[in-house]
Amino acid sequence: MPHPMRTRSTSDEWADRGAAVQIQRETDANGNVQIKTIKKGVKDFTFGRTLGEGSFSTVVAATDRQTLREYAIKILDKRHIIKEKKVKYVNVEKYTLNRLGNHPGIVRLYYTFQDERSLYFVLDLAPKGELFTLLKKLGTLNVECTQYYCAQLLDAIEYMHNHGVIHRDLKPENILLDENMRIKVTDFGTAKLLSLPKPAPSADADPSGTDASEPSTPTSTITPIEEERASSFVGTAEYVSPELLNDKSACKASDLWAFGCILFQLLCGRPPFKANNEYQTFQKIIKLDYTFPPEFPPVAKDLVANLLLLDPSKRLTIDQIKAHPFFSGIEFGLALWTRPTPRLAPNSSIPAPSK
Ligand code: ADE
Predict the structure, then answer these.
(1) Which residues span the domain enclosing 321?
(2) Ligand 1: which of 106, 111, 125 to mutate, most ligand atoms within 8 Å of CB?
């Protein structure tokens, strides 16, 4: 694991390569547009507590020394990533986050830089942790809280899909909570990027090209030395869609399968498809072998049943989900991100799973 104390660049070359450039446009009092470049590197942050650890990365809380703003910095170990042939995932995560830079429900990437040993992704800090942890603490969530979190999740999924991104690994561990207990979707390393229609060149395009969202100038990604093996990605067993298991193909509706699994899980504390091992979980998924507890609210049951369908083309669309009676009274759009969070409470009619 790379240690934050060790991350100061040891040569001028690395100090230069390590600095990320952010272009900011500002309009002065006379209405003139000024282009400002902001460079950030390891030395511009104070590193703090560890927020999470994965096999290739560690997420650490950090403070911008100048602005005192707090961030979460994902530190990725370059040698390990290259050795384990995970370069593609790192690049995908960066390109995807750059594409999805402007939604309140998605973790935003502010800067990327590197030193000899590590890559650094400077992200929004989500200080209240994972939705998964909240669910474990409460056991279940009541209908009002489930509506609230699922409406936000759906809004974030709609934004991703409209920007040509399929997440492919949605699960309560990848849904973080900000200081106001609103969601921030994270972990785009296994996302699928769909090609977008090329926009016509516009007069106000960034002249430097440095904030281009996709591969032309990967300032702090690693260049793969050899072609990586075809991906054997399957996501997380409990949320994997049947089309991925049967045809090794994921589509936008695969995220809506995971959305159905998450809605089920929030209301009853366990995902619909769970067995003692991955193989048995996969068997349950491809046979659509799941049951609702008797106390499951009937309106939610109708929604879940119309999402957990083996044929992805038969699943409800995002617009149909928004119009479903489960979400009656919910105002989608900006209002979702400004209204107060409901009081967090479990579903008293469904027994929480034993810990
Ligand atoms: N753990 C992983 N990513 C995080 C983030 N952006 N904020 C807080 N904790 C995290």
Answers:
(1) 131-193+223-337
(2) 125
